[in-house]
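Input chain follows. Return structure tokens only.
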Amino acid sequence: MPRLLATEEAKDVTQGFFADLLEHRSLTAVRKEKGRFRSYLLGALKYFLADERRRATAIKRGKGQTLIPLEELSTHERLDMEPADPVTAEQIYERRWASTVLERVLNRSKDEYRAAGNAALFDSLKQLLPDEPGAPSQADIAAQLGMTENAVRQAFHRFLQLVGLCMEIHRQLGKGHDEVIYKDAFVIELSRAGIPFLREKNYEITYKGVILPHYYYADFVVWDKILFEAKAVEKLTDSHIKQVLNYLAASKLRVGLLVNFGGDGLEWKRVIL
């Protein structure tokens, strides 16, 4: 033997050798005329020890696994070898479920807008979604408004919720109604959604320290945070935006939503003071 084995290691090797001998080697093939049985055992032991050394070396180098160059792996095989996601299975499921739902909603909405000839409007609406190309980051918006990012996330969710309600109103009523009809429908949608609001909220106008006898009347103030102004015109203009800016200045609010129900598709603008 090339080296001496420790007692316990020698025992393990001996047991392994005889187990291998009984399992893989046929003792019935041994013939007296071919040599002594002891010589047969010695030869078999040498082969066994040589195999054990090769196996031990392979384990040290690659844990008994065949080494395969990465360039020979297919794309699917490479993905299978990527490290596992550290999140839980439940979190992965929820992420995939949310992504699937969002994708289906976006595709359905895009088809509806395209059918109505408003594909460009859909692309504009989609810019509100996080991670969309060209969309301002929540950090940028928070810095602009002097808010925390958490407050911006909440405002973003509320903003999308209001736009969704307006989309439903326009889908049900279409264009051509008086402005007040859309406002009445908006009251129904807000009430059903459990969203707090004030309608026809009045704000004082001060001129050189004197309160004028007439007021600004905002169509709605929602959540005490968002000033909502509804229109039923062919197209929104700069004068409509300036009107909302004046209302924001009088109300001391920062964010307004200007919505026009009078076009073929819903038109809206976010106004920030």
